[in-house]
Specification:
The complex is a heterodimer.
Chain A (H helix, E strand, L loop, with lengths): L14 E6 L3 H10 L8 E6 L7 H10 L3 E6 L10 H18 L7 E5 L5 H18 L6
Parallel strand pairs in A: 1-2, 1-3, 3-4
Chain B lengths: L5 E6 L11 H8 L5 E7 L5 H13 L4 E6 L2 H14 L7 E5 L1 H5 L6 H20 L7 E4 L3 E5 L3 H12 L3 E5 L22 H14 L3 E4 L2 E9 L2 E8 L8 E7 L1 E4 L3 E3 L14 E3 H9 L6 E2 L2 E2 L2 E8 L17 H15 L4 E6 L9 H9 L3 E4 L7 E4 L5 E7 L5 E7 L1 E6 L1 E3 L3 H7 L26 E3 L9 H19 L3 E4 L4 E3 L9 H5 L5 E6 L2 E6 L19 E3 L4 H12 L4
Parallel strand pairs in B: 1-2, 1-3, 3-4, 6-7, 6-12, 7-8, 12-25, 14-23, 17-18, 17-23, 18-19
Antiparallel strand pairs in B: 5-26, 9-10, 10-11, 13-24, 15-16, 20-21, 21-22, 27-30, 28-29
Helix pairs in contact in B: 1-5, 2-3, 5-14, 6-7, 6-12, 8-9, 9-10
Classes of the chains: A alpha/beta, B alpha/beta.
């Protein structure tokens, strides 16, 4: 990525955002249609439901070069699972434990419910998370 | 390396993508990715010509994978699945990469960053496609019955349309009577028909059709199931007290036609609250209920001032209505023609910001001017001021942009605030249906041009003024569009659902029952495999949420299309160095 350096001010964190096809994806699409800006090193991958994210993927992403993982969760709106929020928070807990076991800070994962029209909340959240990760520095030291 | 043969097509989208992303650079960066045999850019990948080219490439190059990098899959997923099908390629071996909504449009401020991101996203799509396998959609039988929510002109017309196509209809209305707003109206443009009579005739039509069941004082309170087969609960008889009853039914699709509310000005807004200052709706009521001349407090009305865009196109305030309400210019001009026909010699002044009597309503505007109406244009930053005078008349002061900002004072008997449509408070319905609202708080369609009555909830359609300001004929047109959409699903008798469901690897499964208890649909059952118990997914019942996959302690469950291998190779591809 242009201008990427390992440490310091020029550090451009890479963030992987997990989104869902029917709930948060339309919200993130709407941010784009409204030309709201967030850093281009944020990449979104879509799933049917937040509850399907495997903690192992998160560890893999951090090990391979992502510095932060953002989960744009279905929250209460999930059409599949009434207890989606609870399941998702368990996944986050397990993934945080997995990161910690492997020497990464658990704060590199953030989850927030993003609805199908949550363009502005998504943009604000992802920018705030980006700054937090920027302060933390790259996930892989040395 | 890969033995796959993948075609990659990167869209300019006219300039929507290529103005912010170097699409040629993206093409070069992905053309040598493992498995890629065709890599092209196109001005519009969705155009007939490019679709044809894709079909030709797939056939001639014997492609077994397709990647289209263009807009959101919400728009064209099905377009390109059809392209794949036409070319004999399994549609589940195609991947849509969103480089517009989630790339070019979000990073209009960063050409290099957006280009790099697009390269990463397309590589991710290619990596995912390399690991696709041909899948067959799951067929579900549909129920040939439709629930229509709201019996205004749109809902009533939809019910008749559905019934005539041989579908049963459950029509529910929250109020005790049908007809909605139109039932209160008199003469309407352009057909000159009377709203009350129009609704009465539609009501007759409904009564004549045996396959329409109408419930008034009824609300939808519960919905479960999915497209083609929803289970619904309707509460009849109001929300409290005696005579309340819950009716359950199965329907194949749902059409929402709950209409609009009139904008209600706050006290003091353009003099609202002063006697003689009326909203458009109040003025229409006066017109429609008056035979002969218009009077107010015993005095003949001689001067009327119309102030346009009240409650629309607001720039400030708490939750401003930023949108143009669209129908009000026509409605106000039409009302003014009706008024002058009742009171010949009536002086009428239209104070507007922008006049939009679109389409053939332009004729109305000319007609109003021919009948003596005067049109004055004001600057929204210097809006007209309405005051009450000592003699009981009203005084409107306005600076007219058409005469070089001359200050004009107009004495009036009535000031009409041309108020627009606002969304209804549909809170409980939104909770039940999980329908998304747009920025303006009306129900949101998937795409205003490409999929104008479909919502992100499969099988739930919207029409009429609940999705945005519309006049009655536009409402009816969208109602008929929702009818067509519903019928195209339900007349076929089945829907095809995504085969992207969970799968258990019996070699890895050690049967612990975790997945079975995690599935609220009961889709995972115990079966015997080589003499031992393992879990198996029932394809017809699995919803494809993937909720079971992370819970398997053995890691034996994958969601098709989102397998461990696919996700990890996508992540790797996202991160690959860009030279």
């Amino acid at each position: 990525m242009a201008g990427t350096t390992k440490e310091g001010k020029g550090f451009v964190p890479k963030i992987l955002a997990f989104s869902t096809n029917n709930i948060s994806d339309p919200g993130i699409d709407l941010a784009g249609s409204s030309h709201m800006h967030y850093p281009p090193s944020v990449m979104v991958v879509s799933m049917p439901c937040t509850s399907g994210i495997k903690p192992g993927w998160i560890l893999h992403a951090v090990e391979k070069g992502f510095d932060g993982i953002f989960i744009a969760a279905d929250g209460e709106e999930c059409a599949y699972l009434p207890d989606c929020s609870e399941r998702a928070s368990n996944i986050v807990k397990n993934a945080q434990a997995l990161l910690q076991q492997n020497g990464y800070e658990p704060e590199r994962i953030k989850m927030s419910a993003i609805c199908s029209v949550c363009a502005e909340p998504f943009t604000n959240q992802i920018k705030a998370f980006y700054q937090i990760i920027q302060k933390m520095g790259p996930a892989r030291k040395g | 390396m890969s033995d796959r043969r993948i075609g990659v097509y990167i869209c300019h989208c006219g300039g929507n993508i290529s103005d912010y992303v170097d699409v040629e650079k993206v093409r070069r960066a992905v053309q040598d990715e493992p498995g890629v045999v065709v890599a092209k850019t196109a001005m519009f990948t969705c155009s007939d010509a490019t679709q044809q080219e894709m079909v030709q490439d797939i056939e001639e190059q014997q492609l077994d994978g397709l990647v289209v990098a263009s807009c959101s899959p919400k728009l064209h997923l099905f377009t390109f699945r059809e392209v794949a099908k036409r070319a004999g390629l399994n549609p589940y071996q195609y991947t849509q990469v969103n480089v517009r909504e989630q790339c070019s449009w979000t990073h209009t401020d960063d050409y290099a960053g957006a280009t790099a991101k697009a390269i990463r996203l397309v590589r991710g799509g290619i990596a995912r496609t390399r690991l696709t396998e041909p899948l067959q959609p799951i067929k579900i039988d549909t129920v040939p019955r439709v629930l229509v929510v709201g019996a205004g002109i749109a809902g009533m017309r939809a019910a008749v349309g559905l019934a005539d196509l041989g579908l049963a209809v459950l029509l529910i209305e929250r109020e005790p009577v049908v007809g909605g707003r139109v039932a209160a109206w008199g003469a309407m443009y352009p057909h000159g028909k009377n709203g009350r009579q129009l609704i009465a005739r539609l009501n007759e039509e409904i009564k004549q059709r045996e396959n329409i069941t109408l419930f008034t004082c009824a609300e939808l309170v519960e919905k479960s199931g999915s497209i083609g087969n929803f289970n619904i609960k309707i509460r009849v008889g109001g929300n409290s007290g005696q005579g309340q009853e819950i009716i359950t039914a199965r329907v194949g699709s749902i059409i929402v036609a709950t209409g609009f509310d009139n904008y209600q000005p706050v006290a003091g807004e353009y003099g609202y609250g002063i006697d003689g200052v009326l909203t458009l709706a109040e003025y229409k009521e006066l017109l429609d209920s008056t035979e002969g001349k218009l009077f107010r407090h015993g005095r003949e009305i001689k001067d009327v001032v119309y102030v346009y865009c009240v409650g629309s196109r607001q720039q400030s305030g708490e939750n401003p209505n930023r949108y143009c309400s669209r129908y009000c210019c026509n409605a106000a001009v039409h009302a003014s023609i009706e008024a002058v026909d009742k009171n010949p010699g009536l002086h009428q002044y239209h104070l507007f910001r922008d006049m939009r009597t679109y389409g053939k309503y332009e004729l109305l505007y000319n007609q109003a001017r021919e009948k003596g109406a005067v049109f004055l244009r004001f600057d929204h930053q210097e809006p007209p001021v309405v005051e009450k005078m000592a003699d009981g008349k009203l005084m409107v002061k306005v600076r007219d942009l058409l005469t070089y900002s001359e200050q004009i004072d107009i004495a009036a008997d009535v000031v009409v605030l041309v108020t627009g449509m606002v969304p209804r408070d549909n809170g409980s319905l939104v909770d039940v249906l999980k329908l998304p609202l747009g920025q303006d708080k009306f129900f949101n369609e998937i795409h205003p041009k490409l999929r104008p009555v479909e919502t992100v909830v499969d099988g739930v359609f919207i029409c009429g003024a609940c999705q945005g300001p519309k006049n009655s004929s536009e409402s009816v047109a969208s109602a008929l569009s929702a009818v067509t959409q519903s019928a195209s699903i339900l007349k076929k008798g089945f829907v095809e659902l995504e085969p992207l469901i969970a799968q258990v690897d019996p070699e890895v499964c050690r049967w612990c029952g975790e997945c079975t208890s995690a599935c609220p649909y009961g889709a995972i059952e115990q079966v015997q495999y080589q003499g031992r118990a393992v879990a198996r997914v029932n394809e017809a019942v699995c919803k494809g949420c993937g909720g079971c996959a992370p819970l398997c302690p053995a890691g034996a469950i994958d969601l098709k299309g989102y397998t461990d291998e696919q996700m990890k190779s996508m992540i790797d591809a996202f991160l690959k160095e860009i030279v």
